[in-house]
Write a sequence for this structure.
């Protein structure tokens, strides 16, 4: 269930935007929470996203951080607009072990053409939540032009 304080039309538009992305389906990402300037994604940890059957591979951590950060940026734009990641910097601070990943993104800066979000990625399992990575995600805003 998605907690959503965005007005219905915008929240649905953002969810639809993510839902049509093949990469989101391939990675089995779930958009769990959405608000103006923030987004939370989760992903079950399964053997095919690990490098040893247990620990999530770093590129997967980057992907969930990227999705969360870009989605947080997207919440500020008008329906029909989109974003594209320009850059992300990620620091892995602990092994990603457990049963699922949680990526929490919050907007840290927004301009007419570029938006930056901060993302924390946690692993959960066995009643514990541990920070595994932090990231800054910078996205290019492509605003919809009226009548297009």
């Amino acid at each position: 269930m998605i907690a959503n304080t965005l007005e219905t039309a915008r929240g649905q538009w953002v969810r639809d935007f993510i839902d049509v992305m093949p990469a989101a389906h391939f990675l089995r990402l779930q958009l769990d929470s959405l608000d103006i300037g923030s987004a939370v994604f989760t992903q079950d940890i399964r053997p095919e996203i690990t490098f040893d059957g247990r620990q999530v591979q770093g590129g997967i951590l980057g992907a969930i951080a990227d999705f969360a950060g870009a989605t947080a940026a997207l919440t500020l734009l008008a329906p029909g607009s989109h974003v594209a990641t320009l850059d992300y910097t990620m620091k892995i601070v602990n092994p990603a072990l457990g049963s699922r990943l949680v990526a929490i993104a919050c907007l840290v800066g927004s301009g007419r053409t570029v938006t930056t979000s901060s993302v924390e990625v946690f692993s959960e399992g066995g009643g514990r939540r541990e920070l595994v990575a932090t990231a800054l995600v910078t996205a290019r805003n492509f605003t919809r032009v009226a009548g297009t």
